[in-house]
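dumping this here before i forget
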Amino acid sequence: MSIPLSPATIALIKATVPALEGHGLTITQRMYERLFVDAEMRALFNQSHHGETGSQPKALAQAVLAYARNIDNLGVLAGAVERIAQKHVALSILPEHYPHVAEALLGAIRDVLGEAATPEICAAWGDAYWFLAELLIGREATIYRDLATKPGGWNGLREFVVESVTRESETICSLVLVPSDGKPVLRHEPGQYLGFQFDLPGHGVLKRNYSISCAPNGHAYRITVKREAAPGVPAGVVSNWMHDHAGPGTSVRVAPPAGDFFLDRGTDGPVVLVSGGVGLTPMISMLETIAETSPERPTWFVHGALNGRVHAMGAHVRTLTDGHANLHSRFFHAEPDEREPADRHSAEPGLVTAEWLVANTPRELATYYLCGPKPFLAALVNGLGRQGIPVERIRFEFFGPADELVEAPRRAA
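structure:
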């Protein structure tokens, strides 16, 4: 159990806020440089969020700044702590890894701030780090225990085999995965993701997360993957390998379901599932679950794609919603392709907007679940807020480390 921080420590941490505002990103970049000298530590992280896109150091800088600003009111960070714990479980982060991060972080603070990083400041940040670390270690221990003891559950990496591959669009395919041992699998919460570890020739160990795109069934998972870049481009190494080489019989190593973004099945209130691009994957899991278990629940599935050629699983969604009075689906294409048939997915031209959502769904009662690219989320999260939707009824998932553009509404919650 974490020992409460002293008033003196809290005051020192608050005093470092201006330094973090000016140098936070440099500190986290330096922290990862120091941390990744250890090959074992480097292998724990998704490197596409580091050297290739730089998104993880930015996300961590925002998190450290939020921690410092709220060090005297940590209750507002409870949601962030849960998200971090879930990510750590997907990456198989263990208690023995935390001292390495502590050493790298405090070393980075000294490297970047120089003489301003007094012994008192470093000691305060050491205390603050271990206070948060012990919270995370405790929560992660509970998650690991739950995952291992539930039917079909496991810890660490488990071998799965690709059972089938379905081409969903020009850029997206679905893979059904079954455990190689033939035993049951944990029934995930609709909206959660799986962690994967790949060892690809020429690239070494790579970590990725992919949302589960099917309802829980106890025997298999489906993931739906977008080809992120042309072959050979680093950011698309894994997605290209899965599109080009993964087929029936291919083995993959998989961590158990994780994530705090999932359908609330404890209520029968209306839900609006809103996605952009491959962000539809967790929404498909939610929609399938509703269609199978509670089709009387008022549900709107709203999806935006660039055009019909890259619009995935449209026919599947129609099959799920057609014939159910309370299940609705609407599609939008930002740049319709004139070569497509006029009735392709029956999509409307244009973008999904907050104004359309509140005008066509029960705004006074509905919970809005959002998933998609950063600009899509930023527009809708902020737009729904401006339309008067309370923050507690706006829930979202961002593929990759979230930054201030989409984290601000969650902090307000």
